[in-house]
Write a structure and sequence with these properties.
By secondary structure, the chain is mainly alpha-helical. The protein has one domain. 68% of the residues lie in helices and 0% in strands. It is built from 7 helices and no strands. Helix 3 packs parallel to helix 5. The longest helix has 17 residues. The protein is globular.
Length: 105
C-alpha cells in the first residue's frame, strides 16, 4: 500500500499492464515494488522485439517520470537500470524517453 499522497507503484503498473500480472510466474502481490518493477524489466527484455509492448512501456515510463516524481528512484533503479545494462536498449531508451525519464538512466 502506498503512503498518503504517494501513488501505489504496483497499482500503476497493473493498470497499464494487466497482461504482465496475469502471466507472472510468482505472486507479485506479495513482492515489493522494486521486485515487481525488476520482474517487469526482465519481461521487457525477453520481449525486446514486441514493438507494441515497448511502445506501451515507453509511454508508461514517460508518464510516470513526468507525473510521479516520488517514483523516480523506483523507475531508475528497478526498471531503467536493468534495461540499460543491455547496450541495444540504451539506444532505444535514449531515443524514446522524455527528458524527465531520460535523466533517470
Amino acid at each position: 500500500m502506498a503512503a498518503k499522497g504517494k501513488p501505489d507503484p504496483v497499482a500503476l503498473l497493473r493498470a497499464d499492464f494487466p497482461d504482465f500480472f496475469a502471466g507472472a510466474e510468482f505472486d507479485i502481490d506479495d513482492d515489493g515494488p522494486y521486485q515487481t518493477y525488476g520482474a517487469f524489466a526482465d519481461h521487457l527484455l525477453r520481449r525486446r522485439t514486441d514493438q507494441t509492448l515497448w511502445a506501451r512501456a515507453i509511454a508508461f515510463i514517460n508518464d510516470t517520470a513526468r507525473n510521479h516524481p516520488s517514483l523516480h528512484d523506483l523507475l531508475g533503479v528497478a526498471l531503467l537500470e536493468p534495461l540499460g545494462e543491455d547496450t541495444d536498449m540504451i539506444a532505444v531508451l535514449q531515443a524514446n524517453l522524455n527528458p524527465a525519464a531520460r535523466t533517470l538512466i
